[in-house]
Design goal:
Layout lengths: L3 H28 L16 E10 L4 E11 L5 E4 L11 E4 L4 H38 L1
Antiparallel strand pairs: 1-2, 3-4
Helix pairs in contact: 1-2
Length: 139
């Protein structure tokens, strides 16, 4: 059986890992927000989404979080009239990614806050371990 401090470190570490992966997905969405298809009428970049799930870890005796799936958002593409664009269809319309920058910025902020909370948990746990060691040394 795992001690509570070790388990809390493993929980926080799993949180850090998934939030780091989530930040990469959000960054990719933002980077591709204005990309178009390579050929006339082709589909552009499709927004990616991240799904989490809880997974019981026997060694830590705790539920850890992990990425269940990196999927794609099936919502409709934005369409703009740009007849001179090489990606325009025969009617002059260009399909743009289904990425909403406001949603991506909100996801980025949430991801950052969650990452910071997990990092703070690791810092506090490490501090508790160090204080315990100091107490044992002084007695």
């Amino acid at each position: 059986m795992s001690d509570p401090l070790s388990a809390s470190m493993k929980i926080a570490a799993s949180g850090l890992q998934v939030q780091s992966q989530r930040m990469r997905v959000v960054s990719e969405n933002i980077a591709n927000a204005q990309s178009t298809g390579k050929t006339a009428g082709s589909d552009p970049y499709r927004r990616k989404t991240v799904t989490f799930e809880s997974e019981f870890n026997r060694a830590a005796q705790a539920d850890l979080v992990r990425i269940k799936d990196v999927g794609t958002d099936k919502s409709a593409f934005r369409i703009e009239y740009e007849p001179g664009n090489p990606a325009a269809d025969v009617n002059g319309y260009v399909k743009l990614p289904n990425v909403n920058l406001l949603i991506e910025m909100a996801d980025m902020r949430e991801t950052n806050r969650s990452y910071e909370a997990n990092l703070k948990m690791m810092t506090q746990t490490r501090s508790m371990v160090m204080r315990t060691i100091d107490l044992l040394r002084s007695s």
